[in-house]
Amino acid sequence: MRLVHLSDIHLGFRQYQRQTPAGINQREADVATSLRRVIDVVIELRPDLVLIAGDVFHTVRPTNPAILHAFLQFSRLVQMLPDTTVVMVAGNHDTPRTAETGCILRLFSPLGITVVEGDAKRMTFHERDLSILAVPDMAQGRPRLEPDSTAKYNVLLLHGEIEGVLPKYGRELDRAPMEITLEELGAQRWDYVALGHYHVYRPVAENAFYSGSLDYTSTNPWGELIEERESGNGGKGIIEHDLATKTHKFHAIPPERRWVDLAPLSGAGLSPASLDEAIRDALDNCEGGIDEKIVRLVVRDVPRHILRELDHRALREYKRRALHLSAERFTSISIRVVQRSFAPTKVRQLQAVALPSRIQYATNSARVCSLKTSTAKLSSN
Ligand SMILES: [Mn+2]
Q: How far is the CA of 332 from the centre of ligand 1 (A)?
């Protein structure tokens, strides 16, 4: 009994203002491509069971392109794997707050996918000697998490936050999830617990895992990257787990767009010329170049007078290569590079949330994207 566990697809997620030639937000297109790649891998793995642990869509009312893409990919999955059982729960992002809105995930039921939203549901698959308790994000009245003692294999599929076990990164600030304790989860009573909500691959018990998101779609992507780097877990991907042999494997599947968090620089004690050189070195030596990537370079401890005297012409040159430069605090600057230009509306949006002194670079060019200080505000829409 081999299962694949994936989660937090967030189709329809948007970030920055860059668009594809077809007029789709570039990051939205990236996330769609990331899902397509993942479906390719799932089809190759040919598991008996696919568990999708919630947040298929980023919003309760996704756009038509997001819905169409999801429908196409899930159709492909069930057509290519006709003998595979596919179970999906709704997450906090795709659960409507009122019943009359209706959950978009129901669209996938006619494909043969078991969609669980609104209420928890226990499913028995006699031919597999398998019982699944599927628990979507629920405002209230969640069931006791009890396995079915008559089944050989018991799987719990749940979207929510396990209280107290998650580190500081990757928390979603905009929509409160369901919270449960480790004790309530009772992982030892299950053969496998497939969790969704936390965006970094992470065990919470020996047999209970967050598979993580498929792309960087939380309000804190840089935090996700740091945690992934520190844990050495391989980044984004999906879990393959065998219930009989307990073999567990995380398949790393790189998202469509590369994110690069360059080592922070300290400007302490540096002359403007030395700091210019350090910034230049860091960007020029970015492995594989900065094009087509989302790159961050944080420069700390830069006094205001040094900041003023930096080689702004050189920095503007980087901006012409789609470099994003912003002031984190007056004693530091942060540089983010994106491939192409960002719309003037984004710059105006940023000006509205930033102190004028912090946006001195942004006002020079409509090619600038976002201020670091306002990232959370702008990405939580
Ligand atoms: Mn999520």
A: 31
Give 10-residue mean pLDDT values along the chain (381 residues). Answer: 97 86 91 97 98 96 95 98 97 85 93 95 95 90 91 96 70 66 93 96 95 93 89 93 97 90 86 90 85 80 84 73 37 43 48 38 31 30 26
358 and 372 in a single domain? The answer is yes
Please count the CA atoms within 13 angstroms of the CA of 172 that sit on its side-chain side.
Answer: 27
How far is the C-alpha of 242 from the C-alpha of 1, rounded, in Å? Answer: 6
What does the block give as tokens for 187?
């992982």
Name the domain boundary from 252, 270, 288. Answer: 252
Number of domains in the chain: 2
User: Do residues 93 and 170 both lie within one domain?
Assistant: yes
The CA radius of gyration of the chain, in Å to the nearest whole number, is 22
Exposed, middle or buried, 183 (CB in 10 Å: 0-12/13-18/19+)? exposed
CATH number at residue 96: 3.60.21.10
In total, the chain counts a number of residues equal to 381
- Ligand 1 midpoint to CA 207 (Å): 21
Q: Model-level pTM greater than 0.85?
A: no
Together in a domain, 286 and 231: no
297 forms beta bridges with 335
Centre of ligand 1 to C-alpha 321, Å, is 32
Nearest Cα neighbor of 375 from 223, 195, 151 is: 223
Same domain (yes/no): 40, 96? yes
Helices (H), ranges, 212-311:
221-231, 272-284, 304-309
Residue 204 CA, ligand 1 centroid: distance in Å:
17
What letters, b where the CB count within 10 A reaches 16 and e where it falls short, cover 97-131? eeeeeebbbeebeeeebbbbbbebbbbebeebebb
Tell whether 88 and 28 lie within a shared domain.
yes
Task: Give the domain extent around 323.
Answer: 258-379
Backbone angles phi, psi at 31, to 5 degrees: -65, -40
Query: Do 264 and 124 share a domain, yes or no?
Result: no
In the reported structure, the alpha carbon of residue 269 is separated from the centroid of ligand 1 by a whole-number distance in angstroms of 42
- Final residue before a domain boundary, out of 217, 235, 252: 252
